[in-house]
Each structure stands twice: as C-alpha cells, then as structure tokens.
Write a structure and sequence with these properties.
Length: 253
C-alpha cells in the first residue's frame, strides 16, 4: 500500500474528473491520500472530500501565501472542521519568504495562531517552507514538542537534522525524480526511513516523466521507486515503511 500524504484534490484542477483521478489512484495501489487545505474554502472542500470517500483524509489550514487573509473567523472555522473525524491534521501552514505573497509578519502571526490550534486539538501539523527554514525551525524549536511533517523538503542537511531532532518527518515528492535535485536526493538517502513520508503535492510537481503536467496521487508510485533506488531498498519495503509512518503520524495507529 502507498500513502500520498500530501495532495490537493480540493484544487479546481480536479473539479471535472475527480472520480477518474481517484480510480487511477486506487488502481496504482495507493490506499490513502491526505488532502491538504491552503485557505478557508479549500479546507472546507478537503473535509467534504474526506466525508465522501473512504480512502481520503483531510488537513485544514491557511498557507503562508494566504496569511494576509487569516483572522478570528477563519480560526473558528478551522477549529470546527478539526472536530470532523477524518480531518486528521492542521496544514498546510508555514513560512514562504520566496514569494512573500503575504507579509512576513502576517505569515508568522498566522503560523503561530495555527500552531496553537494544533496544540489545543492535539493534531499533527503539515509544514510548508520556502527560503525560511531558519526562522521556521527557530519558531518550532521554541514551540516543541510538535508532531508533524516538513512537506516537500528542500532544506539542507543541518536543517534536516534539526527537524529530525524535534521528531518531525520529512516529506519527499516528485522533486526527487528531477535532474539537478542531487541535494534533495542526498538528504533522502541519509535520513532514516522511519522519518520519511511520500507525497505528490498534486496538482503540482509531477514526477518525471510527467514533469510539467498535472500531477495526481497515482504518480506517487514513481516517487516511491526513486526513493527506493536512492536508499538502495526494495520498493516493497519503502512502500510498507512509509505507509506505516503515515499511519503513525496521522492516524496514531
Ligand atoms: Ni501543498
């Protein structure tokens, strides 16, 4: 079984053919997927999708791109969505100082408010981070203990060690299949498989040979194959271990 621990089936790009996307996901042996919210409406859709499909779970949160919109009403709606039995995490939240679509100050406020939500609801967190590993790691080290995953890891090895020291998982997706991704692959090779989660981030970051096209959960198999090659492990073993990691983090199984 494979677990796509980070995808956006709540994205408008899946509106017209979601049933076929889910059918291909099941055919590819993907037993579960976790749909991450990125703003208030997409968080609601993630929760609704999890109600409609047995193998779909949801995370709710406001992405740093949308941190400017974060307010108390949204905070209340996230808290109420987190009562849903299949909403298993807060995310994706974090810091993105690459695009700075929201002011850094606002990003930090939204992050801290949502970390408090995770703490009061006792849920794991899915973190997004671009060009902000130092400030994000500092905030998390102060807020520890935190359960969660650094999704789409692109940090360096020292930063990876700090994340692992806090007990965080690192998520790897289609980028491991890209040319010029040797640093990401080195880190995937070095970290223990017990700290590793697989993800697609669909519709973004489709793995080679589908790079540039719409990504979907079925393609997680390509990520698993590449991670198995990097770690010199059996594909079956990688599938089983990362599946169990997903259950441990998000389902406490
Ligand atoms: Ni994402």
């Amino acid at each position: 079984m494979l677990y796509d621990t980070h995808c956006h089936l709540n994205h408008p790009q899946f509106e017209s053919d979601l049933d076929q996307v889910l059918a291909r996901m099941r055919d590819a042996g993907v037993g579960r997927c976790l749909v991450a919210g990125y703003d208030s409406p997409s968080s609601l859709i993630a929760a609704e999708l999890s109600s409609m499909h047995e193998d779909v779970y949801a995370a709710v949160g406001v992405h740093p791109h949308d941190a400017d919109s974060f307010n108390e009403d949204i905070e209340r709606s996230l808290l109420s969505l987190l009562e849903h039995p299949k909403v298993v995490a807060v995310g994706e939240i974090g810091l993105d100082f690459h695009y700075n679509y929201s002011l850094p100050k606002k990003q930090i406020l939204a992050l801290e408010a949502q970390l408090r939500i995770a703490q009061v609801t006792n849920k794991p967190v899915i973190f997004h981070c671009r060009e902000a590993y130092e400030p994000l790691l500092e905030i998390l080290e102060c807020a520890a203990p935190i359960h969660g995953v650094m999704h789409c890891w692109v940090g360096d090895i020292d930063q990876a060690r700090r994340a692992l020291d806090m007990g965080l998982y690192l998520g790897f997706g289609g980028m491991v299949t890209f040319k010029n991704a040797s640093e990401i692959c080195d880190i995937a090779a070095m970290i223990p498989v017990d700290s590793l989660l697989l993800e697609t981030d669909a519709p973004y970051l489709a793995p080679t040979p589908n790079r540039g096209k719409r990504n979907e959960p079925a393609y997680i198999r390509l990520v698993a194959e590449k991670v198995a090659a990097i770690k010199e492990m059996d594909m079956e073993e990688v599938m089983m271990r990362t599946w169990e990691n997903g259950l441990t983090l998000f389902h406490r199984e």
